[in-house]
Amino acid sequence: MRWFETPNYDFIRAQKIAYFFSGALVIISIVAIFTMGLTYGIDFRGGQEFVFDFENPVDVVEVRDQLTEPLGTTPEIKLFGSSSEILVRVDTEMDITQTEDLILSNFESIYPDNPVTIEKTDLVGPRFAEDLRMGALYSIVFALAVVFIYIFIRFKGWYYSAGAIAALAHDVLVVLGIFTIMAKFAPFDVSIDQTIIAAFLTIVGYSLNDTVVVFDRIRENSLVYKTMNFKDMINKSLNDTLSRTVITSLTTLFVVTVLFIFGGEVLKGFAFALVIGIVLGTYSSLFVASALVVELQKRAMQAK
Amino acid sequence: MKSQNNGFKIGSIVLFLGLTIYYLFPTIQWQLEQRHINSMVPSERAQYEEENAAKLQNLREESLSLGLDLQGGMYVTLEVGTPQLLLELAGEYADDQLREIIQIARQRAFEQRTDFIDEFVTEFETRNPDGLLSRYYRSDADNITRRSTNEEIATYLREQRNAAVDRAMEIIRSRVDRYGVTEPSILQQGNNRIVVELPGVADEERVRDLLRGTARLEFRLLPEPEEINAVKQQIAEYFSNQMEQEQADTLAQAEGDSLAQDSSNDDVTNLLEVFDLRGTNQYSFGYTAGRDTSIVNDILAQEDVQSFIPRNIELMWGASAFAEDNGTELFELIPVRNQVELTGDVISEARVAFEPTTNAAEVSMTMNSEGARRWSRITGANIGKPVSIVLDGYVYSYPTVQNKINNGRSSISGLGGVVEAEDLVNILLSGALPAPLDIIEERTVGASLGEDSIQAGLYSTLFGLFVVALFMIIYYRAGGGIADLALILNIIFILGILAAFNATLTLPGIAGIVLTIGMAVDANVLIFDRIREEMRGGKTLRAAIDNGYSNAMSAIMDANITTFFVAVILYSFGVGPIKGFAVTLMAGIVASLFSAIVITRVVVDYLTRDKSADINFG
């Protein structure tokens, strides 16, 4: 079987539309992040989180209403997988033992015939949450810096680094934007916690994978076709590697989709970030990274 | 030349495979062993486990371990309370100014993410430009004198903190060992944190008490009944005046704003509303329902109320409820002297005992000779008076001294049951923590959720593998088949690497494997696509293969090195599950590079060893 045997698409021209499209995506994401705010999980916000498993299904709204008064604050309640498992997230300074006892005794009185077991409890202190938040921020910034330096050394041109970094920032921003908007209505937990940061860094690594393969071909072609103009060469390189880009993206997308569907509730948010990250990463390495390289290189030449 | 090269490759494959099997062997044995054990009837099983205890223990330790998220258990991060430690080290020199400095330094260290001890020294020096910290800290043993510089003292404080963390870890290890957890892990993180992992533990509350209990045991005298009474009267008067005042206010407001009245009733501001000042005997300060103890604490902490309580008296809660009233447990507040007569470090032995008449569990303690001598002096001087036994700020009992105790025996009664008595013995025997520990992070996963996660993770890995393998064969034909072989070996290698480095398989780790499956084919896709391209360019199969491999190499290396960097960053910044993900990602990159480049090349070379041989890349 062969797809994209000898493709000859004009990517550079398509990138005009891509500029508009990506620009819109980034702006929408930034607006969403600033107006709605990021939804942090307890890792980055501190607090207590429980997962309860009831024998029979329960109503989320009812649980929320019934727990608000005794807890003295509105807890965040979500279904966790099945309709009999719920996730309760509380911002409280109470001792975790106290909170747990309080919630359990309330469940006993609201649902006397529906026995409940505790599946998971998490406690993150406010100072520890701050530490985790800073750690996550540092790791993303650090990862981008390392990538910049590596590409700079390997490809000997700052516009390659800049193009790759811009594409990565684009991917991370848009995934963040989608997460922010999804937080309002997603049927699973999309709040930002440590595993999501791990997913972001994986997206960075993945998107880079794609970009670097294209850059590599550009480097190779620039040695072979010395007379070709820069724009055409980038277009040729994108077409040369297109088959590989699509196949690898597809196989990776297969597995993370499987993970999203069958991987269990704990990994839902993580797998979701990877699914959209891979789609975006593939798109950005085809339409964003190299377009920026062309643009930046042109300006660099003009400046000389 | 070429065959020699391949000989080297085949050799390295055999070596790598051999090592993997060697490292994975205990895991396989352990799995078989467990299946064997599970098929036995319970009585047989117990006997078998006992007879083979050493062997089983060995296998368990050497096999690939599962993270807490997969097998259930508890993960706790504790922080050594450096502020309290500094206060304690100052001992009798501690004054209000020191307390204030500590408070401010603590706040600033948190906000600016700086070291607490640095902030402490800075704050002290801003307040006292020429002052010496030696006014608070002196220690002959550590050569800290009146003339020590602030720098020397900062170093000394840092050493003390490190020592406190070391000691705390030792104590936690000993307590956890006595609790009987298989394969606990206790590690230091940063300069004042301790991470404890307890697989399979379900009783969170007990573990919290076990880890946090400072085991500061004290014997203190109680104030005279007249003294207590005087304080009670003053407080009662103060609050009944306040109540009258309030009633007058309410009356005045009655015609006006009724909303304000409602809200004022919500918060309890009057001690008499929740606290019964009468007490159960002449030494008791009073009692309240369990749920109201925190309200009482808040009211008593108010400055004007504090002014009624003499400096040499401290109010402490009884450790357990003394009575039940309409189903509400009642707790007693007991005034004790500030001065500590004797501390727990004189205890040489502790064991669980039972009170002969009531058969209630208690802890019986024996003191060393020095302690016994002082205990005899204290009891001799206080016959007919009560002595309180205080543990971690709670009064366990305050028995009246009947006669002079010469043998250094004493006991703690008023415990919740045998389990609590056992835990207490364990805590007492492991020694007192040098500083209090705060739980700053805690994660517990129930065993059933862990089991669900394993299954979900396992199934999705297998299914993902299947889909990718199928696609590769359809798209690349024979080449795809070779890539699939590499893929399967790849997963075995990843597990082998994890076992070799004694890493733990976590749920995010499984996600890492799943992701590597997707990306592992990338190298082969790059190679095969390149081979097709070369053949399109008119090259012979052999030449196309050679060129395909060599031309794809730089792209493969670049792509994998960058991903590897990201994994390293994840590993160094992440904690807990993130580290597991990073480790599998790194293992995955190494394994997939090896299997995609070396293994497939050897197979491809073998299949095309004759000039006429044909192999289909789809």
Explained architecture:
The complex is a heterodimer of chains A (304) and B (618). The radius of gyration of chain A is 24 Å and the shape is elongated. Chain A is 69% helix and 10% strand. Chain A has 304 residues and is an alpha+beta fold. Chain A starts with 10 loop residues before the first helix and ends with a helix. In chain A, helix 5 packs antiparallel against helix 6 and helix 7 crosses helix 8. In chain A, a hairpin with a 1-residue loop joins strand 2 and strand 3. With 618 residues, chain B is of the alpha+beta class. Chain B is 59% helix and 15% strand. In chain B, the strands form 5 sheets. Chain B has a 4-stranded antiparallel sheet. A 4-stranded antiparallel sheet of chain B has the order 10-5-13-14, with helices on one face. In chain B, strands 6, 7, 8 and 9 form a 4-stranded antiparallel sheet that branches. In chain B, a hairpin with a 6-residue loop joins strand 11 and strand 12. In chain B, helix 1 packs across helix 21 and helix 17 runs antiparallel to helix 18.
Summary of the model, kept short:
Chain A is of the alpha+beta class. Chain A is 69% helix and 10% strand.
Topology diagram in text:
The complex is a heterodimer of chains A (304) and B (618).
Chain A: H1 11-36, H2 42-45, E1 47-54, H3 60-71, E2 76-80, E3 82-90, H4 96-110, E4 116-124, H5 126-155, H6 158-182, H7 194-224, H8 230-240, H9 242-262, H10 268-303
Antiparallel strand pairs in A: 1-3, 1-4, 2-3
Chain B: H1 2-38, H2 42-51, H3 53-62, E1 65-66, H4 68-71, E2 73-80, H5 82-90, H6 96-112, H7 116-127, H8 150-179, E3 185-189, E4 193-199, H9 204-212, E5 217-221, H10 225-254, H11 258-266, H12 271-274, E6 286-289, H13 293-301, H14 303-306, E7 313-317, E8 323-325, E9 328-337, E10 340-343, E11 347-354, E12 361-367, H15 369-381, E13 387-391, E14 394-397, E15 409-412, H16 418-430, E16 437-445, H17 447-476, H18 478-500, E17 504-505, H19 507-536, H20 541-573, H21 577-607
Parallel strand pairs in B: 1-17
Antiparallel strand pairs in B: 2-4, 2-16, 3-4, 5-10, 5-13, 6-9, 7-9, 8-9, 11-12, 12-15, 13-14
